[in-house]
Amino acid sequence: MRTMAIVRRVFKQMLRDKRTLALMFLAPLLIMTLMYFLFQNNTTQVASLGVHHVDQSVVNVIDTKNVTIHHYDSSQARKMIKQHDLDGYLTQKNGQLTITYSNSNPTNTSLIKASLQSGLVKLKMKTLVTVTKKQRAALESQQAALKKLTAAQTQATVTKLKTAIAQAQARGDQATAEKLQKQLKQATATTSSSTQSAKATSYTTKSHYIYGSSDSTFFENFLPAFLGFFVFFFVFLISGVSLLNERTTGTLSRLLATPIRRSEIIMGYLISYGGFAIIQTVLTVVFTITVFKIHLVGSIWLVFLTNLLLALVALTLGIFISTFANSEFQMIQFIPLIVVPQIFFAGLVPVDGMASWLQAIAHIMPLYYGANALTAVVTKGAGLGDIGVNLLILVGFMVVLTMLNIVGMKRYRKV
């Protein structure tokens, strides 16, 4: 009976909490729907490949459905890849093909590899077929000429032997006539000729990687995005739960009863929690670089700066979302709605290949800009000017959320 009493109490409590019920039942459905549209997208992924002085026959056999080809006059692969944001750069010297991969996007690297390899196989088979046809035509021509020559030589020999036999018989030299008749039966003419065969052009390939290597794993290639995500996630969670705890225990109400301004309260939270966010960011970045030995192409200071801005955005977002939660349980339930979708738009699924409405959603996600900046710095060696727009947008998110937090704090001030 006591157990049933507890069951009834929990059910009543849950049924009264409409927000918890909505988060519990609707949040999984929303996430599953988002995943459906993300992974059911039929848009073809296309990689960009630059070429320089490559035989047209090679260019023609590369699969242009999955690879967009651009022609350039420079042989400096690394410079051209960075300047034009290419996934690969192909150059040729005699029969040596040299392919340089950016390798910042493993999917595009695989597309170029597969297209180039299959193209070279097709080209080799096509060349062998052409050579075989030429050799066959040349051989048939030589056989016809040889047959004609042999027939002419045989006819001349037969005529000569017949004449000699007739002369021997006229002289009564029967032995010589019989000998000549045997030669007449065995008369053949053989001619040897050399056949000149065409040689198929053979290409060899050599690969270089700007970021990582041919043995790079999925985790290594997406580590910059994961780094930003974990910084964002834990700062969001800790800041939201901490402020919620102050509100539910009455600390925030007592603080608002003082003459202190709402903006000062918010700035105090940002500075205090921001200090811990800085420490967490430094530890996470240093741990990632030293333990996982991430191959860093760009500046480590830009990695720190980007992660710090992500942490500050997560801090302001966590404070803002906590105002909509009445318990820590509800705060945790906001994670599938606010945080989980961020990782889908952080580079795990190429945003350029998504439907237009999904791309619009990606552009309102802070982690989209943070992951783009981190990936550009780590894998492409981007500088501050290259990622400046992404960083400014993160600053914009932080400013807007801070203003919303100041306005939202008004609802808790009773005096």
Compact summary:
The chain is an alpha/beta fold. It is built from 16 helices and five strands. Strand 1, helix 3 and strand 2 form a beta-alpha-beta unit.
What does this structure look like?
InterPro entries: ABC-2_transporter_component, ABC2_TM, ABC2_TM_bact-type. Belongs to the ABC-2 integral membrane protein family. The chain crosses the membrane at residues 21-39, 222-244, 265-292, 298-322, 334-358, 387-407. The protein is of the alpha/beta class and 415 residues long. It has helices at residues 2-16, 18-39, 56-61, 77-84, 106-171, 174-185, 218-248, 251-256, 262-291, 300-322, 328-333, 335-338, 340-348, 356-362, 366-380, 384-408, and strands spanning 47-52, 67-71, 88-93, 96-101, 204-209. It has a 5-stranded mixed beta sheet with strand order 2-1-3-4-5. Helix 5 (106-171) runs antiparallel to helix 6 (174-185), helix 9 crosses helix 10 and helix 9 (262-291) packs antiparallel against helix 16 (384-408). The protein is elongated and about 150 Å long.
Short descriptors:
elongated; 7% strand; 2 domains; 16 helices; 415 residues; 5 strands; five-stranded mixed sheet; alpha/beta; ABC2_TM
Write the layout of secondary structure elements.
Blueprint: H1 2-16, H2 18-39, E1 47-52, H3 56-61, E2 67-71, H4 77-84, E3 88-93, E4 96-101, H5 106-171, H6 174-185, E5 204-209, H7 218-248, H8 251-256, H9 262-291, H10 300-322, H11 328-333, H12 335-338, H13 340-348, H14 356-362, H15 366-380, H16 384-408
Parallel strand pairs: 1-2, 1-3, 4-5
Antiparallel strand pairs: 3-4
Helix pairs in contact: 5-6, 7-9, 7-10, 7-13, 7-15, 9-10, 9-16, 10-15, 10-16, 13-15, 15-16
Membrane topology: Multi-pass membrane protein
Domain ABC transmembrane type-2: 187-412
Organism: Secundilactobacillus collinoides
